[in-house]
């Protein structure tokens, strides 16, 4: 996905094109990894010194809700990344040092749900954390 594709997707949903959204998306296009929210805020405020934390967070959550970004928590802090190109249900290995990810093409819920007979599972999230080969 590129900036124009993402902005077009937002436009189709009735959202306006803004310089802040362009700038946020540009950060993610340049880095294929999870980025802490505080780093995104710092980068955006270099170009837009008056922009509030609320505005940036609102945009990050909008982009996540519209499935342009993915979000996770690392070390108790929200991190975001551009949605990956893997289509369909999948999970990730996330490097705790650099934030890079690797898609996992199977779902562990297949074996876990056997132990939850009678339970109505509505949703799940599964991520594996550790060091990638470059950071190990």
From TrEMBL:
<feature type="binding site">
    <location>
        <position position="135"/>
    </location>
    <ligand>
        <name>Zn(2+)</name>
    </ligand>
</feature>
<feature type="binding site">
    <location>
        <position position="89"/>
    </location>
    <ligand>
        <name>Fe cation</name>
    </ligand>
</feature>
<keyword id="KW-0678">Repressor</keyword>
<dbReference type="InterPro" id="IPR036388">
    <property type="entry name" value="WH-like_DNA-bd_sf"/>
</dbReference>
<dbReference type="GO" id="GO:0000976">
    <property type="term" value="F:transcription cis-regulatory region binding"/>
</dbReference>
<keyword id="KW-0804">Transcription</keyword>
<feature type="binding site">
    <location>
        <position position="124"/>
    </location>
    <ligand>
        <name>Fe cation</name>
    </ligand>
</feature>
<dbReference type="Pfam" id="PF01475">
    <property type="entry name" value="FUR"/>
</dbReference>
<dbReference type="GO" id="GO:0003700">
    <property type="term" value="F:DNA-binding transcription factor activity"/>
</dbReference>
<keyword id="KW-0479">Metal-binding</keyword>
<keyword id="KW-0862">Zinc</keyword>
<protein>
    <submittedName>
        <fullName>Transcriptional repressor</fullName>
    </submittedName>
</protein>
<comment type="similarity">
    <text>Belongs to the Fur family.</text>
</comment>
<dbReference type="GO" id="GO:0008270">
    <property type="term" value="F:zinc ion binding"/>
</dbReference>
<feature type="binding site">
    <location>
        <position position="95"/>
    </location>
    <ligand>
        <name>Zn(2+)</name>
    </ligand>
</feature>
<feature type="binding site">
    <location>
        <position position="132"/>
    </location>
    <ligand>
        <name>Zn(2+)</name>
    </ligand>
</feature>
<dbReference type="GO" id="GO:0045892">
    <property type="term" value="P:negative regulation of DNA-templated transcription"/>
</dbReference>
<feature type="binding site">
    <location>
        <position position="98"/>
    </location>
    <ligand>
        <name>Zn(2+)</name>
    </ligand>
</feature>
<dbReference type="InterPro" id="IPR002481">
    <property type="entry name" value="FUR"/>
</dbReference>
<keyword id="KW-0805">Transcription regulation</keyword>
<dbReference type="InterPro" id="IPR036390">
    <property type="entry name" value="WH_DNA-bd_sf"/>
</dbReference>
<dbReference type="InterPro" id="IPR043135">
    <property type="entry name" value="Fur_C"/>
</dbReference>
<keyword id="KW-0408">Iron</keyword>
<dbReference type="GO" id="GO:0005737">
    <property type="term" value="C:cytoplasm"/>
</dbReference>
<dbReference type="GO" id="GO:1900376">
    <property type="term" value="P:regulation of secondary metabolite biosynthetic process"/>
</dbReference>
<keyword id="KW-0238">DNA-binding</keyword>
<keyword id="KW-0963">Cytoplasm</keyword>
């Amino acid at each position: 996905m590129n900036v124009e594709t993402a902005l077009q997707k937002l436009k189709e949903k009735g959202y306006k094109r803004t310089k802040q959204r362009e700038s946020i998306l540009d950060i993610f296009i340049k880095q294929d990894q999870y980025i802490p929210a505080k780093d995104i805020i710092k980068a955006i405020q270099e170009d837009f010194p008056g922009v509030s934390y609320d505005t940036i967070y609102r945009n990050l959550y909008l982009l996540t809700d519209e499935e342009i970004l993915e979000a996770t928590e690392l070390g108790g802090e929200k991190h975001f990344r551009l949605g990956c190109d893997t289509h369909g249900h999948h999970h990730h290995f996330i490097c705790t040092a650099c934030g890079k990810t690797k898609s996992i093409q199977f779902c562990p819920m297949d074996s876990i749900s056997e132990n939850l007979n009678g339970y109505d599972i509505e949703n799940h999230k599964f991520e594996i954390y550790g060091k990638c080969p470059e950071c190990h």
